[in-house]
Design brief:
The protein is built from 18 helices and six strands. It is mainly α. The strands form two sheets. The protein has a three-stranded antiparallel beta sheet. β2 and β3 form a beta hairpin. The radius of gyration is 24 Å and the shape is globular. The relative contact order is 0.12. It binds carboxymethyl coenzyme *A.
């Protein structure tokens, strides 16, 4: 029987060694090259982590070829259909679905931590009125590290748990405050009698003279369902750029709130969480169906930086299961909240056009989750510059789960990649007058 090893030979020095093949419960095995440098005198070079697993994790599994996404073993389709965001957050953080009692206590604790310190609220006044909400998210989440010192012993699992709960509980409050600052509206405090999504919508949209939620606490169930769904779909996605950033920052033992701010920064880019905002800007730029071929050609032109936003994924190479779900939800939401804006029709036409194009077929480029999420948010009246912030709220559940998993791991080491140096060889300093 073949040994579960891979043999690597360095032809430059004739050294050869066997390396174990590590297998998880599912998925592609990985060669454990931890001792490669010691054995063969070489590093691996893998910019963009095309073939590199950076950690072991039991949280999320993706099979990109078959469009499978599991949270703690549960298919995303089942969670999207039957669950709520907070239940999924509990699952990600704790490994199991909660009992009724556990869920109720989890929700209670989240409500209890949803306020932010008054001193922190004042931080918003320091931001220019037209600051992008994501810039405030990075700053204010990072500023949480200036609070809660008495519960920051990272060797204490209870301190870690409370820190994670605080981040999940406060992120919608900070998100809504970022929006309100950018439009000059007064800050609305969280309400402890509302659910997570309802409370967020209330903090976003209530005005002093006009409450978003009436005295019967009515809020359209389709809006709440859609928000829960998008939060569930965006909650985790294994070792994506922002989660890896949170893990790398945390590996130094840094303050967890500062590590989450690093994750938010990484998510902001248009190649990652910024794509949902970028999709709407792109659709607005395309404008009408007859201009689609022009933009398809631009996306294919190597000399043009334009890319079809909301298309392609590093891992999914046949379809993104989250995109299938958001597409269906788009129909439902737009039926309930119809709009004169022809964005959805334009998006459907663009999808149809791209999926028939040889370039997109050959490169296996399909719509990803964010192709439709922005259209849903827009129908719910969430402003475009808040789309990536919505992603932050959802992904906080994943970030804190990975952080909890990593911090509980014995023998955790600082993440420290190597490099191939391409600069000058040693040279002597030249005096200023001789240059
Ligand atoms: N439009 C046009 N061409 C594309 C696109 C696109 N959206 N995406 C990839 N390609 C081409 C790319 O030019 C490259 O061509 P070639 O092999 O000739 O050089 C090939 O497809 C492979 O692309 P890549 O950039 O090497 O692939 P990657 O795995 O490094 O990038 C990606 C994945 C998601 C960053 C990329 O597909 C992209 O930029 N998509 C648009 C942005 C987007 O929608 N991002 C959201 C991702 S889902 C939400 C999330 O998880 O954050």
């Amino acid at each position: 029987m073949a040994k579960d090893t891979v043999t690597i030979r360095n032809n430059t020095n004739g050294k050869e060694a066997d390396f174990s093949l590590l297998r998880g419960t599912a998925g592609t095995p990985a060669v454990d090259i931890g001792s490669l440098h010691k054995e063969l005198g070489a590093f691996t070079f893998d910019p963009g982590f095309m073939s590199t697993a950076s950690c072991k994790s039991a949280i999320t599994y993706i099979d990109g070829e078959n469009g499978i996404l599991l949270y703690r073993g549960y298919p995303i389709e089942q969670l999207a259909k039957n669950s709520t965001f907070l239940e999924v957050a509990y699952l990600l953080m704790n490994g199991e679905l909660p009992s009724e009692v556990e869920l109720s206590s989890f929700k209670g604790e989240i409500r209890q931590h949803s306020m932010i310190h008054e001193a922190l609220r004042v931080f918003f006044n320091g931001f220019h009125y037209d600051a992008h909400p994501m810039s405030m998210m990075v700053g204010v989440m990072g500023s949480l590290s200036a609070f809660y010192h008495s519960e920051l012993n990272m060797n204490d699992p209870e301190h870690r748990r409370i820190s994670a709960m605080r981040m999940l509980a406060k992120v919608p409050t900070i998100a809504a405050a970022s929006h309100r600052h950018s439009v000059g509206w007064p800050f609305i405090y969280p309400r402890l009698d509302l659910g997570y999504c309802e409370n967020f919508m209330n903090m976003m949209f209530s005005l002093p003279g006009q409450q978003y939620i009436d005295e019967n606490n009515y809020i359209d169930p389709i809006a709440v369902k859609a928000l829960n769904l998008l939060f569930i779909l965006h909650a985790d996605h294994e070792q994506n750029a922002s989660t890896s950033t949170v893990r790398l920052a945390s590996s130094t033992g840094a303050n967890p709130y500062a590590c989450m701010a690093a994750g938010i920064a990484a998510l902001w880019g248009p190649a990652h969480g910024g794509a949902n905002e970028a999709v709407l800007s792109m659709l607005a730029e395309i404008g009408t169906v007859d201009r689609i071929p022009l933009y398809i050609e631009k996306a294919k032109d190597k000399n043009d930086p334009f890319r079809l936003m909301g298309f392609g994924h590093r891992v999914y190479k046949n379809f993104d299961p989250r995109a299938t779900i958001t597409r269906d939800t788009c129909y439902e939401v737009l039926e309930k909240f119809p709009s004169d804006d022809p964005l959805f029709e334009l998006a459907l036409a663009l999808e149809e056009f791209a999926l028939k194009d040889e370039y997109f077929i050959e490169k296996k480029l399909y719509p990803n989750v964010d192709f439709y999420s922005g259209i849903i948010y827009k129908a719910l009246k969430i402003p475009e510059d808040m789309f990536t912030v919505m992603f932050v709220i959802a992904r906080t559940a994943g970030w804190v789960s990975h952080w909890l998993e990593m911090m509980a791991e014995p023998g955790q080491r600082i993440g420290r990649p190597r490099q191939i140096y391409t600069g000058y060889d040693t040279r002597n300093y030249v005096d200023l007058t001789d240059r």
